Amino acid sequence: MYRIMLVDDEERILKALSRVLGRNKTMEIELFTAPESALKRAQTAVFDLVLSDYRMPQMDGVVFLTQLKMIQPESMRIIISGHADLNGLLEAINQAEIYRFISKPWDDYELRETVEKALAIRDLTVENRRLADQVRRQREEIERHRRIIERIEVLHPELMNVNWGEDGSIFLDEAELTDGKGGVS
Amino acid sequence: MNRLMLVDDDENILKAMRRALRAQGYEIEMFRDPADALERAAEVEFDLAIVDYRMPRTDGARFLEKFRQIQPDAYRILASAFDDVELFRNAINRAQIQKFIPKPWDVYVLLDSVAQGVEQSGLHRQLTALKRELEEKERLLAEQQMFIDRIRREHPEWQE
After folding, report:
1. Would the CB atoms of A139 and B137 count as touching at under 8 Å?
2. What is the ipTM, given to two decimal places?
């Protein structure tokens, strides 16, 4: 289940957006008319994606998403706005690292597609990070093993001799055990 | 540099698409014959393929289905005029096409779709590489562990 945050000062727009996105049953959507309360909520719940309006009275969408990025750097951020705001939007790319713009009025199909693709990218990014962490842990473990084997070799070279090739079923090549390929790459 | 494959039986379309994409710094290969394109796909890695739906001997979806088997991480885009929407829907599901671009295309849509596709295929490729690395490391770890266990078993006098 994805958790999605929608922020727009106009309740009517929020409802329309959530109607379009709500057709996808994997999305749990929360609506906010005030960016401040959205930020407060972001302190306690993790959102996969945040879609915000650009023009809002209390705080514009770029400021909001920039602050949100500080709280949840991994959320995908999308801004929705009228074409007239192009200059402000360029600034948004740099400041808040916005993933996409959606222009107002939006096309339902495009809105859904954009959100779904963003979630797919987020899934991949999260999964890649998880695997990379796992690889890092494996590297440490391999290194730890390598040190043990090295100690065996230094202190008890006779053990190495005894054991090498003793068991034909396990092929252990010394180079492989202390291998740079595994440990350093 | 990201490598893109363009497949269309109409040379003018290929050239127009290349014109739009080349400025973005992509390395582009064009094919009028899908068979040649598949052959090439077996030789080098592509980040993304844009394929026309209507071609004389095969259709783009069928082509992408085969292409996917050769290069599962590459992003697949089908391009076509809007007249056969129903056909597409089936085609898209069958070949797991990630994006559809209507013809004639809007340059912004084309560039945006390609940029997004290249990003996604990069992430997929990273994922595949990480999975492979995990497996290799798992194997190495098991071998090391087996060796250390054996030393411990056979030589209880060994102190770590």
Report:
1. yes
2. 0.74
Q: Looking at residue A184, what is its pLDDT? A: 37
Which among B127, B136, B140 is the nearest to A124, CB-wise?
A: B127
The three-state secondary structure class of B123 is: helix
Strands, sheet with A27-32, edge to edge from the N-terminal-most edge strand: A27-32, A2-7, A49-53, A76-81, A100-103
pLDDT at A169: 31
Confirm or reject contact between B131 and chain A (CB < 8 A). Answer: yes
- Would the pLDDT of B95 be above 80? no
Identify the pLDDT of residue B27.
Answer: 96
Residue B74, C-beta contacts closer than 8 angstroms, at least 6 positions apart: B5, B45, B46, B47, B48, B49, B67, B68, B121
Q: What is the pLDDT of residues B12-21, one digit of tens each?
A: 999 999 999 9
Binning pLDDT at 50, 70 and 90, where does residue A77 land?
very high
How far A11 CA sits from the closest chain B CA (Å)?
A: 30
d(CA A16, CA A22): 10
pLDDT at B160 over 70: no
> In sequence order, what are the residues at sequence separation of 6 or more whose Cβ sits closer than 8 angstroms to the Cβ of residue A113?
none
Strands A27-32 and A2-7: parallel
- A164, A170, A173, A178 alpha-carbon torsion, rounded to 10°: -100
- Cβ neighbors of B113 (< 8 A, separation 6 or more) are B77, B99, B101
- Point out which residues pair with A100 in neighbouring strands: A78
| C-alpha span between A145 and A15 (Å, rounded) | 57
Q: Are A41 and A32 in contact (CB under 8 A)?
A: yes
Rounded to the nearest angstrom, the minimum Cα separation between A84 and chain B is 18
pLDDT at B93: 67
